[in-house]
Amino acid sequence: MIYEPSNRMSDRIERKIRPFRSRRLMKFEIDRPIISITFDDFPKTAISVGANMLDKYGWTGTFYTCTGFAGITNHHGPQYDAADLPALEASGHEIAAHTYDHLDCTRLSEAQIQDQIKRNRQGLADMGVKQPVTSFAYPYGATNAGLKGFLGEHYHAVRGIGSGVHYDTADLNELKSEGLYSNSFKSTLSTLSGLSRRPGWYTLFTHDICENPTRWGCRPNEFETALEIIKSLGAIVLPVRDAVTYLENPHV
Fold it and tell me: Which residues neighbour 118 within 8 Å (Cβ) at sequence distance 6 or greater?
């Protein structure tokens, strides 16, 4: 069964006003675009295609990891396995958190969320991840004002799925991110190209990268086209963790 967010009126209203609540704002000034390329959950193709393409450009990304998904196969295809995480880390990629079971956190108690965080952290350590895990992405992008504050105490940068570019400020409790999907590819490319006129921090996320992707993925040629545009912009490409450090300390 494919998850679908609640469409109740109260939930639609909450999604509209949430970006203005429980914020932890980071202000910054940049004269070049900064791009963060991220992968959610994540299937093997995010590594065999996504990470390998990034490596060719000398770039690294962020991999939001549900340790309960290791070794399984789902609608995105075969998922990563335990040996992939140390290899990604050794290549300079950021290993980040995405809960243990990829559950909608708005439907969990605080104790259940704590358990998901704890189990996921332990799973990452058991699979050989050495770096501190400081970034988190809300599964399905589902959150609320209370969760933003709560998870902002556990992670330095928390990413959502609200589209848009960060100009001058970013909410570290719910960073914007654009889906790099086949069905919205032209719109994403248009936003990328616009960064030449007004630089900002733009984060992208996707799942499977294959010739017949799900609606949450893209084709390899589309992914490479996006990378070529990013290169043409002269953008700084950094994992989320490193982008936040750069923006907080731009002269370091």
Answer: none
